[in-house]
Amino acid sequence: DQQVKQNSPSLSVQEGRISILNCDYTNSMFDYFLWYKKYPAEGPTFLISISSIKDKNEDGRFTVFLNKSAKHLSLHIVPSQPGDSAVYFCAARPINTDKLIFGTGTRLQVFP
Amino acid sequence: NAGVTQTPKFQVLKTGQSMTLQCAQDMNHNSMYWYRQDPGMGLRLIYYSASEGTTDKGEVPNGYNVSRLNKREFSLRLESAAPSQTSVYFCASSGTANTEAFFGQGTRLTVV
Fold first, then answer.
1. Is A38 left (phi over 0), alpha (psi -120 to 50) or beta?
2. Residue B16 pLDDT more than 80?
3. Measured between CB atoms, which of A34, A49, A98 is closest to B50?
4. Mean pLDDT computed over B9-19
5. 10 Å Cβ neighbour count for B83?
6. What's the whole-number mean pLDDT along residues A89-111?
7. Cα distance from B40 to chain A (closest Cα, Å)?
8. What residues of chain B lie within 8 A of the CB of A97, using their CB?
9. What is the chain A residue with the closest CA to B41?
10. Cα-based torsion angle of the residue sequence A102, A106, A109, B2 in order, rounded to the nearest 10 degrees
11. What is the pLDDT of residue B2?
12. Band of the pLDDT at B1, cuts 50, 70, 90?
């Protein structure tokens, strides 16, 4: 049973526009959420995170939004650049554990 | 500036053979993880270790064993490899609670 879901396997966006990647979770006991980016043949790299006590966190072009009532997380990239083309994973940490549960990933393609 | 180092990078095994994947981190992190990545399945947690001397099962532990040899090293062992274990394996580590995990470059394992 997938506790962290990314229902869109792929997304294509034009350079300069906004990319919105979505993530849903089923477990209300998650208290920390993260987004990772992965290029082919490399390990995932951390992008941005948010604690469950917040609803927004911003870092440059990247903003993560958390809607706890809807159990929904989103990553906004503005403006999108070709170098952002990668697979994006959301992840969640259950409260009082060291586990990190990942979603299935969304492949983002940013075209010129 | 090594971070998380995994060996080997590539491996081909015959069904029934055994092998150990090695992982070491130099960031003095308490927690370490083993994930596998399969197409359409995202990153699935195999085992994790919250501290030296402790290990816990993740989402897909069957067919694997782990050892947290010391704070730096966390190994993953396949006692009798099966084709279903063909995957890309990632090791990761994280420090204090609610901090990001850092990943190694991955091991591509093929079981024939």
1. beta
2. yes
3. A98
4. 97
5. 10
6. 93
7. 6
8. 50
9. A104
10. 10
11. 75
12. low
> Given B42, B92, B97, which is nearest A104 (Cβ)?
B42
Distance (Å, whole) CA A73 – CA A93: 13
Name the minimum distance, in Å, from the CA of B100 to any CA of chain A: 7
Provide the terminal-to-terminal Cα distance of chain B, rounded to the nearest Å.
35
Write out pLDDT tens, residues B52-96: 989 999 999 999 999 998 999 999 999 999 999 999 999 999 987
- How many A-B residue pairs are in contact by the CB < 8 A criterion? 63
Q: What is the pLDDT of residue B69?
A: 85
Contact criterion met (CB below 8 Å) for B48 and B56 = yes
pLDDT number for residue B54: 93
Is B86 an interface residue toward A (CB < 8 Å)? no
Residue with tokens 């792929």: A10
Q: What is the pLDDT of residues A24-54, one digit of tens each?
A: 999 888 999 999 999 999 999 999 999 999 9
CB contact under 8 A, A44 and B105: no
Strands B101-103 and B87-94: antiparallel
Is residue A102 within 8 angstroms of chain B, CB to CB?
yes
Residue showing tokens 């992965």: A38
